[in-house]
Amino acid sequence: MSSNRTILIVEDDYDIRETLQMILSSEGYIVLTASNGKEGIDLLQSTTIQPRLVLLDMMMPVMSGKEFLEIVMNDSKLSTTPIYVYSANGDTLPIKGTKGFLKKPVSYEEILKLVQTYCGDDISEMN
User: Fold this and answer.
1) Any idea what the Cα angle at residue 3 is, between residues 109 and 69, rounded to 5°?
2) Is residue 124 situated within a structural domain?
3) What is the secondary structure of 4-60 as a DSSP string?
């Protein structure tokens, strides 16, 4: 499995996180998960294969999505990783440090289309 098929899901809701992991894994993606921003940062800093996409919830315990983004944007190794925010709160205005925003509930077809854009087999550099 090539590294360009790796995705990180940072989501505190167990059911959403596990469902996304199951769906994306069944499509052949390598899926890393974190239940809060701190776990997500720890994973990004310790993994040898950087994900091609991060799906980030904004409202989480321990470390919020906003705090996660601040750390990522200030880390030269991590700052090029594409991040899409998906959240029930907020609007679709651009969020600094992200590639876009999806409002929950998000259809699985929409997630798969987004993931294919960043993690497909024949993609050019997206950054």
Assistant:
1) 70
2) no
3) GGEEEEE-S-HHHHHHHHHHHHHTT-EEEEESSHHHHHHHHHH-SS--SEEEE-S--
- How many domains are contained in the chain? 1
Q: For residues 59 and 79, what is the distance between their CA atoms, to the nearest angstrom?
A: 21
Q: Is residue 92 in a domain?
A: no
Q: What are the phi and psi torsion angles at 76 (to 5°)?
A: -60, -30
What is the model's pTM?
A: 0.84
d(CA 14, CA 40): 14
Write out pLDDT tens, residues 32-73: 999 999 999 999 988 888 898 999 888 788 888 889 888 998
pLDDT digits (tens, 9 = 90+) for 76-92: 888 888 888 887 776 55
CATH of the domain at 76: 3.40.50.2300
